[in-house]
Structure formats: structure tokens, C-alpha cells
């Protein structure tokens, strides 16, 4: 049983990113096997990057470093948003899917 609570775990934005990771992995698990090294992998890596950069930034001692990692996390979130739009364009996700609604 886990007893340690890391500072990033208290951040609401990290908690939301954690939920987004779960939703993304569920959605991409339904993608065709042929996309395992394409959009599936790219979406999963982008969403994990959001949570990981928020966690890493929370460990930085000065605000400038913290902000830098938050900016990287935001960039990864925009990458994921773009990828999800592309998945709707090619019919892998429906435009009204729960995952896309969560990004709005």
C-alpha cells in the first residue's frame, strides 16, 4: 500500500492529466492493430508527457523552471489535441467521443 504522497499528486492539473492518460489509453486500445506504432503510440506518448512534465516541474525549485515544464506539458497537450482531431478525420474516433469532449 502506497503511503508517500508526492507534491505533484496534490496538483489538480496533474490529477486531470492522470484521468486523461486513462481515457486516452482506453480510446487508443480500440484503434486498429496497424496503428500500434503510429497514432496509438503517438497519442499515448503525448498524453504521458503531459503528466510527466507536470510532475517533473513540480520538483523544480524556482518558478522559472516550474513554468518551463508547464509550458512543455501544454505543448504535449496541444500535440494530443491535434492527433485526436486527425483520428476523427480518418474515422478512428467519433467527433463526439468522451475523450474529445474532455479536451474542450
Secondary structure layout:
Blueprint: H1 12-28, H2 39-58, H3 63-89, H4 98-103
Helix pairs in contact: 1-2, 2-3
Fold and architecture overview:
The protein is an all-alpha fold. The protein has a single domain (9-103), classed as 23S rRNA-intervening sequence (de novo design (two linked rop proteins), Up-down Bundle), CATH 1.20.1440.60. Helix content is 67%, strand content 0%. The chain contains four helices and no strands. The radius of gyration is 15 Å and the shape is elongated. It starts with 11 loop residues before the first helix and ends with a helix.
What is the fourth-level CATH superfamily?
23S rRNA-intervening sequence
Q: Under CATH, the topology is which?
A: de novo design (two linked rop proteins)
Helix vs. strand class: mainly alpha
CATH architecture: Up-down Bundle
Q: Please, what is the average pLDDT?
A: 93
As a percent range, the share of helical residues equals 55-70%
What does the largest sheet look like?
none
Strand percentage, roughly?
under 5%
Number of helices: 4
- Please compute the radius of gyration using only Cα atoms: 15 Å
Number of domains: 1
Task: Quote the distance from N terminus to C terminus.
Answer: 35 Å
Which CATH top level class fits?
Mainly Alpha
Amino acid at each position: 500500500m502506497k503511503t508517500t504522497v508526492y507534491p505533484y499528486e496534490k496538483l489538480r492539473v496533474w490529477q486531470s492529466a492522470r484521468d486523461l492518460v486513462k481515457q486516452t489509453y482506453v480510446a487508443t486500445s480500440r484503434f486498429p492493430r496497424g496503428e500500434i506504432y503510429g497514432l496509438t503510440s503517438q497519442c499515448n506518448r503525448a498524453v504521458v508527457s503531459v503528466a510527466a512534465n507536470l510532475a517533473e516541474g513540480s520538483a523544480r525549485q524556482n518558478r522559472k523552471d516550474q513554468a518551463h515544464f508547464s509550458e512543455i506539458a501544454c505543448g504535449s497537450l496541444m500535440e494530443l489535441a491535434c492527433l485526436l482531431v486527425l483520428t476523427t478525420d480518418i474515422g478512428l474516433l467519433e467527433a463526439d467521443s468522451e475523450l474529445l469532449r474532455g479536451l474542450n
